[in-house]
Amino acid sequence: MHDIPIFTTRRNLLALGLAGLLAGCATSGEPPKPATLSRNDDPLPETPAPVMPAMYAALPDETFPIPAVNIKQVDPRYWRQVVDYPTDEKPGTLIVDTPNKFLYHILPGGKATRYGIGVGRDGFSWAGRAIVAYKRAWPKWTPPDEMVARQPSLQPYSIANGGMPPGLKNPLGARALYIHQGGRDTLYRLHGTPEAFSIGKAVSSGCIRLLNQDVIDLFNNVRDGSTIVVIPDPSKRQQLAA
């Protein structure tokens, strides 16, 4: 009986080596990494960066020019888009879906403009039904006294000291919508942020943050007096309002 010769080529060795590496990755708890060699043993091209949507381009004509969004830091599902959203709420209503990190601006015909948002972290969240009392472009920021007590470094921006002037470093960003309930300020805001990485996360001290480009779009399409409904996140402690 004759032995069958085994022909070992460079390609066979590479394939065996890759298989071993992939097995090692799998046992380490990490997802397997795809092979990076083509049929000619040449590296495959890297995945191209996402194309910048025009809606997230720079806004050089703003009072304080706004740079383009770093969209690599934002999951595409949080990009602004019009979606199906059947609801009994009338057009013009804002619905903040805290658990899923979306804000919906209700449109006619069962549609809504959906925005990705960053929400309040545990212990600093608010939920309920209220109204958008008024809006401001490039607002000052005046942290409430309770926040200043927690963070004394904010004292220079307290109400007594006139707040922080508007600008790109102002925590309220390019626009802010102020939420009132029963004629009183809830201290809850919808506002802009340049921190793209925070969208889709629970990071703020109770307010809802949107990309500056998104909050400008929202600002331009929401009327004073519009209803806002904030859905609580059942996994977090919140200040609930009737």
Automatic annotation (TrEMBL):
Q: Which terms in the Gene Ontology molecular function aspect does this entry carry? A: glycosyltransferase activity; peptidoglycan L,D-transpeptidase activity
Pathway(s) it belongs to? Cell wall biogenesis; peptidoglycan biosynthesis
Pfam families per the UniProt record, alphabetical: YkuD
* UniProt GO BP: cell wall organization; peptidoglycan-protein cross-linking; regulation of cell shape
**Record keywords, A-Z:** Cell shape, Cell wall biogenesis/degradation, Glycosyltransferase, Hydrolase, Peptidoglycan synthesis, Signal, Transferase
Naming one, the record's GO cellular component terms include: extracellular region
Check the record and name the CDD domains matching this protein.
YkuD_like
InterPro entries from the xrefs?
LD-transpeptidase, LD_TPept_cat_dom, Transpep_catalytic_dom
Where does the record place the L,D-TPase catalytic domain? 92-231
Which catalytic residues are annotated? 191 (proton donor/acceptor), 207 (nucleophile)
Quick one: signal sequence residues? 1-28
Question: Which protein family is named in the record?
Answer: Belongs to the YkuD family.
Entry protein name: L,D-transpeptidase
